[in-house]
Each structure stands twice: as structure tokens, then as C-alpha cells.
């Protein structure tokens, strides 16, 4: 090989080696581990280290200048895993804290977010709340120079021990999961733990409807540990009555929320033992205005409408019968509608008393006209028989005419004025047989009947004078029915209000 070619090859190798050393030096500078700051120091206390995030080597040289001794990249720092910091893998969290030792105190507080619904038919209520637990687990203690807590989501809850609190007498419950599970876990350096979750629960409520709809209901939400007795877990309200807080905007359409308060006591199960149980009690008072408009006012108007028949002529049978039937059917519809929205309880409710008494008043108004119509029919039959009997007797009695200044018929007080008017035809017929030229208008007809029959009829007329006078029955009904109904209303509202 010629000498020149060897020289060129040697220069090329030298250039390549120098370039490779430069690249190696640059690569070593960027791959150097980050200088960790000591606890309690900040970047202002370490002037020799400048953290550059997202800067190139050339930009770093421009910023720090030739006096900079080390460049630290914050994005390259190594983070300690949560499981390593809390030493989750070093302990058995299937057992409670201080296992085989004293009971673990678990404080509870609740914030009621909303009271969604109250169902009388199912006898339950639905509530959304924030349930928070407080306890100490020394296995979760971790070193911290700042004494600050760490907050985690629901993924860590599955790896550690948490209280197994459940809702007694609950029908349905779930933890909200939009957009993620609404669970929060906060761990303090000394091992204290705050476990919070947002849950909606539907629980049973034993309601007493004996005063419905003028009633007040007290419902209870009960919390208890499922597995741990009072020897293993002591459940208590963290701050007494202050442990329960509510939103001022909570409202219900049919109820007024009067009071929230907390209690606690022990519950005993024959097969497992004693458990701590916490109670959330709240009292609801029902709004009456809705039921006044939908039930009480219509029922009262139907009763008053049934009284209209007392002012209708007793001979208008279609009008009075149709009015009575309409009011009875309307009252039946109101009673059915009220009971359809209520549970089938075996005792009488306050609204049942009012509606059924109103129904009785409406029904009695129909019976009143039935009695009036029956007595009218009986009276007409008796009048017909009486006219026939008088007609037979008039053929054998003498007729005295021509007596001056007499215009009455003497009936010995046995018959009514209507019966006397029914004899007008007989009188005119007798007068037609007399002299047509006689222009005197006076006439007396004396009907002499048997004394025994006369006394019997007098007693019968005196004893049934009011009953046979159907107009008098309607007149008395116009006063008795409204007066009795007003008296009933006064007693009813005084007792239930």
C-alpha cells in the first residue's frame, strides 16, 4: 500500500476515535443518576444543582454556564411504590389491627347528602350519604419529615384491612362509581386511617298510619359490623351528635324534616353474640295541604251536594235519585283512590274515618228520600181508600143546604184539609141536584161516622202527623244533616290536630 494511503487511513482512524470519545462523554453526562435532595431542603438551598425538565444538553449549558457542576433531571427520579412505603406486602391485612388484643375503636361520622324518597306502600326510604370511618392501624405507619398524610383511591382498599360495616334492615345499597368508585382512603404517618365512601341505601321504615295523613313518622338507619363482635371492634359515633351533619337544601314534597339525631346501643344475636350498633334517627311530619285539596275538600263537597236533594220536590223522583247515586259513587271513587296509594294495613286510618263518615252522610241522604217516597206512596193509598169510603157513606147521609153564611164542611176533626178538598166534587154534585135558581153559596155537609172508628182514626192521625207529612221530614233534614256534619268536623279536627 502506498505511503499516502496509509497516512490518510491513520488520520481517519484518529478522527473516528475522537468523535466516539465525544459521543461517549455526552452520553455519560445525560445518564448520570440524579442528586437526591435531603428532606427539609429546597432547590434554593442547593445552588450547585439545577433541575431542567425537557431541556437539551446545549440549552442546559446555556442556562447554567461553565460553573455548573451537575444537572438533575426531575423526570428521571425514581419513585417509591406505595406498597413499599406502607409495607403492605410485609403484613397480613386479612386480620384486624391488634389481632387477639383489645377491640379496635372505629369512629364513624355521616354526612347526609339527600333524602331521595319515602314510600308508604313499600314502607321504606332511600338516602344518599357520605360514610366515614376512623381507626388506627400501626401497620400502615410510615416515616415522614413533613407529617403529611397520603390520600389514595379505592384500589388500595382491597389490599388493607377496613371495617366491615353494613346497613341493618337495608333492602338495596350501592357505592357510586361515576366516574370512578367514590372511595377515598387517607393514611397518616402515625397509622391513623380515614376511610370514606359515598353510598345510596334503601332501608325499611316501620310506619304507623293510624293518624294518616295527619301523622309524623320516625325512621332509622342502622349501622353495624357484620363479622366483629364488641370484643373485636368497638363502633362508636366519633363526635356524638355532631357526627351527623345534613345538607340544608334537603327537602321532600310530602314531608317536613323535623329532626336528625344519633343513638347507639348493643345488639344481641343468639348464635353470634353482642355487636355495637349505631342509629341515625330522623323525624318526618307530613304536609297536609295536598290531602286537603285531593281528599278532604272533595269529600266535603260531595256531602254538601247530597243535601241539595232536600230542597228538590219529593215528586221529582229522577232528579233526587240520580243526585243521590252520583254522590255515593263519587265518594266510593275517592275512598278507592286513597287506599290504592296506601299499604293494606289492618287498622283504621284517620282519613278512613273522615271518608267513611262522609260516605254514611251521603248514603243517609239517599235513604231519607227513600223513606219520603215510601211514606208518600203509603199516604196516597190511604187517601184513595178514604175517598172511596166517604163516597159510599155520602150516599146515605142527608145534605143540608140553604144555611146562610156557612162555607165549611164539618169533618169532626178526623181528616186533614187535603181530605176535605177531595170532597169538593161530592159537594158540587149534591148542589147540582138542588134548585138551580137557588143562588146561595152556603152549604154544610155533616158526615156522622161511628164514634169508635172516629176515636181510633184521631189517635192514628195525631201519632203519625209528622211522619206522614213528607215536607216536614225534608225540612228537618235541612237542619239535622248540616248540623251533625259540622259537629263531626269539629270533633275530628280537634282530635287529630
Tell me about this structure:
The chain has 497 residues and is an alpha+beta fold. The chain has eleven helices and 16 strands. The strands form four sheets. Strands 3, 4, 5, 7, 8, 9, 11 and 12 form an eight-stranded mixed sheet that branches. Strands 6-10-14-13 form a four-stranded antiparallel sheet, with no helix packed on it. The termini are far apart.
Could you outline the blueprint of secondary structure elements for this entry?
Blueprint: H1 3-30, E1 49-51, H2 57-64, E2 70-72, H3 82-85, E3 104-119, E4 124-136, E5 150-152, E6 165-168, E7 170-175, E8 183-187, E9 192-204, E10 216-225, E11 233-237, E12 244-246, E13 255-269, E14 273-286, H4 289-306, H5 317-340, H6 350-394, E15 400-401, H7 417-422, H8 424-432, E16 443-444, H9 451-463, H10 465-468, H11 470-496
Keywords:
497 residues; alpha+beta; eight-stranded mixed beta sheet; four-stranded antiparallel beta sheet; 11 helices; 16 strands; 24% strand; elongated
Task: Describe the structure concisely for a colleague.
With 497 residues, this protein is of the alpha+beta class. It is 37% helix and 24% strand. The protein has helices spanning 3-30, 57-64, 82-85, 289-306, 317-340, 350-394, 417-422, 424-432, 451-463, 465-468, 470-496; strands at 49-51, 70-72, 104-119, 124-136, 150-152, 165-168, 170-175, 183-187, 192-204, 216-225, 233-237, 244-246, 255-269, 273-286, 400-401, 443-444.
